[in-house]
UniProtKB/TrEMBL annotation:
Protein location: Membrane
Originating gene: Syngr3
Protein name: SNG3 protein
Organism: Bucorvus abyssinicus (Northern ground-hornbill)
Taxonomic lineage from the root: Eukaryota, Metazoa, Chordata, Craniata, Vertebrata
Membrane-topology descriptor: Multi-pass membrane protein
UniProt region (Disordered), positions on chain: 197-230
Keywords: Membrane, Transmembrane, Transmembrane helix
Gene Ontology CC annotation, any one: neuromuscular junction
Length: 230
């Protein structure tokens, strides 16, 4: 993008809501936001069941491992609020006038996206492993679809967060176009004259300075001083 700073134009420019929503980065954030809701919503609502139908205590459907359910819920909530935060950052990114602040925002996005990609990878492996070890029963079968949904969307979340990390890396590599900080009065031609310097009409004057001719009428003997004759 010509005249861009870390993927955004000049600070203070108008934001078109339609173009903003059509950006791949915005679409990816909304997508992973929905995925996070599906994961922790499925676990909270349907992945705590009575295994035999007689126990009063609800057990985690993933091999009765409470850590598996807790981890899936925690990652989903972190991703949920992280998506909201960076969605707001993207919305106001063009209003950030400081290059250093823009760089920090892009690096924070890159680091957070990479970190969430790792967390979702661990969540997918953990949930899938515990689900394979789960003994099917009447109570488990009731929440089986929710468990599979949590595992599936955990895998999809890895892909989306990796894509967000790649987008952030691309924005970081774009860097800053220093023409954003050049004033408009400077000419683009390096051989052009500085605009603030008065150059006149451009027509060279034909009048030249001439020193007054030396004449004998000038008083070359001040104060009556006489030159001795030789």
């Amino acid at each position: 993008m010509e005249g861009a700073s870390f993927g955004a134009g000049r600070a203070g420019g108008a934001i078109d809501p339609v173009d903003f929503l059509k950006q791949p980065q915005t679409i990816l954030r909304v997508t992973t936001w929905i995925f996070s809701i599906v994961v922790f919503g499925s676990i909270v609502n349907e992945c705590y069941v009575n295994k035999g139908g007689l126990e009063t205590e609800l057990l985690c459907i993933f091999n009765e491992n409470e850590s598996a359910c807790s981890y899936g819920i925690a990652v989903g909530i972190i991703a949920f609020f992280g998506c909201i935060f960076f969605f707001v950052v993207d919305l106001h990114f063009q209003q950030i006038s400081s290059v250093k602040d823009r760089k920090r925002a892009v690096l924070l996005d890159l680091g957070f996206s990479g970190f969430l990609s790792f967390l979702w990878f661990v969540a997918f492996c953990f949930l899938a492993n515990q689900w394979q070890r789960t003994t099917m029963s009447k109570g488990v079968s009731q929440g089986a679809d929710a468990a599979r949904a949590a595992i599936t969307f955990s895998f999809f979340s890895i892909i989306v967060w990796v894509a967000l990390a790649v987008k952030a890396l691309q924005r970081y590599r774009l860097g800053t176009d220093m023409s954003l900080f050049a004033t408009d009065q400077f000419a683009t031609d390096p051989s052009a004259a500085y605009p603030g310097y008065p150059t006149g009409s451009g027509v060279e004057s034909t009048e030249t300075y001439q020193s007054p001719p030396f004449t004998e009428t000038l008083d070359g003997n001040p104060k009556g001083y006489q030159v001795p004759a030789y």
